[in-house]
Specification:
This protein is mainly α. It has 18 helices and no strands. α7 (159-174) runs antiparallel to α8, α11 (257-270) runs antiparallel to α12 (274-287) and α12 (274-287) runs antiparallel to α13 (294-308).
């Protein structure tokens, strides 16, 4: 019992000392008010305390003896604005915020440049840009490109970087290294959307796209390129289409937007991608009504729609759209293209023949199943709506052959109907 009592007292004192230490660290003191209690931990009643006058010199007490009518003198404690004691204290960042700052691409790039000796330096960047301009004027484009790359790298997020990126692309363009030039033009417009070089970039990009499109017609599209620095490594025609689409997306109201759209449509059409070509020509007709390519877009759009039609078993929407496009072309450009009127009329007759084929195909389907009533219905529609077509003549001949045929096919399962017919009919009702 004696040992347990000593142990209990030791624990009590230990807890009291820890509490005193915690209060002292948090408040800068505080053990004196607990002195009597700690000396006599088993005393039931605390000692009586006597009232003392408040300490006006203690922190937080000066406001009680201040007069609100008297202005505070500059430099005094009362002259400080609320929260001024927190000035200079940095806000503590959370763990995930620190992780986000550490993994930010800009911060990583900045640290990597510092580690590799390429930290931001405006003086070095401007000197490199001046050296690059001197080399560019002397037609030393490879050397100029290296200088412009240094200028853009050493002073990023500035007009100097924009100038350096543009001149790097220009150097690659005149050095006939079009893939690198095109990639840099794209990066420039991605980072500086309202770049002052937009018009020049569009002109260069359109020239690159036209060159790649012409080259890809003579060479295999997916043949790898190991020797020619003026072409992409693979899929030259796909890169040309990407350049044309980039022109329309980056500068949709510019002078080359309709040219790029038309070039993309022609490129798709020449390679048999009729769905893509139809989309390009539709975009040109709708979004650029004043384009000089409107007549050609109408004629080529008609051909793409007719070639996207897959037969009577498929959707007839291409035929409907082609018929409307013929009417629109004759209305808008009938006087300007008199030599095309006969071709358009021929295309309209071809569309009627294909519609007759669709109706005749429905009749043949029911005819083959010996549903002669439904077959006669569709044959009659062909004769009535398309009498001048070849399928109209075939429908007339077939109508004569099946005029005495029963409307419904014979019921080969009559014996099942005789056995279960009445019972199933009663169960149904």
């Amino acid at each position: 019992m004696h040992i347990c009592r000593i142990t209990r007292r030791s624990r009590t004192w230990l807890v009291a000392m820890m509490l005193c230490a915690f209060v002292g660290m948090s408040t800068g003191g505080g053990c004196q008010s607990l002195g009597e209690r700690l000396r006599h931990p088993f005393r039931k009643k605390p000692p009586e305390t006597t009232e003392t006058t408040p300490n006006y010199d203690a922190p937080g007490q000066s406001i009680q003896k201040a007069s609100f009518d008297q202005p505070a003198t500059p430099g005094s404690e009362l002259a400080k604005s609320p929260g001024s004691s927190l000035e200079g204290v940095e806000e503590k960042k959370g763990f995930w915020q620190k992780v986000g700052d550490a993994t930010n691409s800009k911060n990583i790039n900045r640290r990597w440049k510092s580690m590799t000796g390429r930290a931001a330096n405006e003086q070095i960047a401007r000197q490199a840009y001046a050296d690059g301009m001197a080399a560019f004027k002397d037609h030393r484009y490879e050397e100029a490109a290296k200088k412009f790359d240094i200028a853009a790298d050493r002073w990023s997020d500035s007009e100097l970087e924009e100038d350096g990126m543009f001149m790097y692309a220009e150097s690659m363009f005149f050095a006939d290294r079009y893939p690198k030039a095109s990639d840099t033009y794209t990066k420039l417009l991605k980072k500086y959307e309202n770049s002052r070089y937009l018009d020049k970039v569009m002109v260069r990009s359109f020239a690159i796209g036209r060159y790649w499109d012409d080259v890809s017609r003579d060479k295999s599209t997916y043949q790898p390129n190991f020797t020619d620095n003026s072409r992409p490594f693979i899929d030259t025609q796909g890169h040309a289409i990407s350049v044309f689409e980039g022109i329309r997306m980056n500068d949709p109201t510019g002078p080359l937007a309709d040219d790029a759209t038309f070039a993309a449509g022609v490129s798709h059409f020449m390679r048999g991608y009729y769905d893509d070509a139809d989309h390009d020509f539709d975009t040109l007709r709708k979004e650029y009504p004043r384009s000089e390519h409107q007549p050609a877009a109408h004629l080529l759009g008609l051909r793409t729609k007719l070639r996207t039609y897959q037969g009577p078993q498929y959707d007839d929407r291409p035929l409907t759209d082609a018929d409307k496009l013929i009417d629109s072309t004759l209305l808008q450009f009938g006087q300007e293209m008199p030599e095309e009127r006969e071709r358009l009329q021929h295309a309209k007759r071809a569309i009627r023949a294909q519609r007759a084929e669709r109706e005749y195909d429905n009749a043949v389907y029911y005819d083959s199943r010996k549903c002669y009533g439904a077959a006669r219905y569709y044959y009659q529609n062909v004769i009535k709506q398309y009498p001048e077509t070849h399928h109209g003549e075939l429908a007339q001949k077939r109508m004569v052959e099946i005029k005495d045929k029963p409307a419904d096919p014979p019921n080969y399962w009559w014996w099942l109907a005789k056995i279960f017919g009445e019972r199933s009919r009663k169960a149904t009702y």
